[in-house]
Every structure is written in C-alpha cells, then in structure tokens.
Specification:
alpha+beta, Gyrase A, domain 2, 35% helix
Length: 112
C-alpha cells in the first residue's frame, strides 16, 4: 500500500496522466474517509472535517495551508464555524493525480 503521508508531491505539468480507475481503487483504501466526487466532469477528492469551534477550525486551516505551501499543491477550502470542507484535485490536468491522494493523507494526519 502506498505511503502517502510521507510522500512528496511531484511537479505536475499540463498533460500529465490522470490516475486510473485501478489506481483510484487502490489509493482510496489509504484514505477511506474521503469521497470521490464528480464536479463538472472533473473527479475530485472531498472530505468534511468537524472541529470543536471556530478557533480550532482556523488552526486546522492554517495547518493545511502550511502543508499545501510546502508541497506547492493547494486545495479549495470551505470554512465554517466548526467545520472545514477540503477538495483536492489537480487543476492543471482537470482531475485526480497521485499528488491529490498524498495531500489528502497529509490533511488527515494534520487533523488527528
């Protein structure tokens, strides 16, 4: 099984291959709390994290921002009082790349 938590995002150029259906089935086992959604025909990873209060929410958002910046791969974040919804996908290829699964695993690790 892939070790995404310790993985590093690779530089992804336009035209890089999307993950295959087989890879998705394998990779999602590492991050089962995440769902794969289809948004305007683009596959994305999505998860809603529940927090205790707004201060904890913002601390978590800042932790995600630090990881995203260090990996040069950035999510969409929806911030509410006691929750953060996170979407990962690779904009340059309009879909899922191995990097997205790495970042989802790192997001999970940051939350726990």
């Amino acid at each position: 099984m892939e070790d995404f938590v310790n993985g590093k995002c690779e530089v992804c150029q336009a035209g890089a291959p999307l993950v295959t259906s087989e890879q998705i089935k394998e990779y999602i086992q590492v991050i089962p709390e995440w769902e794969i959604i289809q948004d305007d025909s683009i596959k994305k990873l999505k998860r809603c994290f529940k927090t205790k209060n707004y201060i904890e929410t913002i601390k978590f958002v800042n932790a995600i921002a630090a990881i995203a910046n260090s990996q040069d791969h950035h999510p969409v974040l929806q911030v509410e009082y006691n929750s953060v919804t996170v979407w990962w996908w690779t904009h340059k290829i309009n879909g899922l790349h191995r990097n997205d699964f790495i970042m989802a695993a790192k997001t999970n690790e940051t939350f726990t």
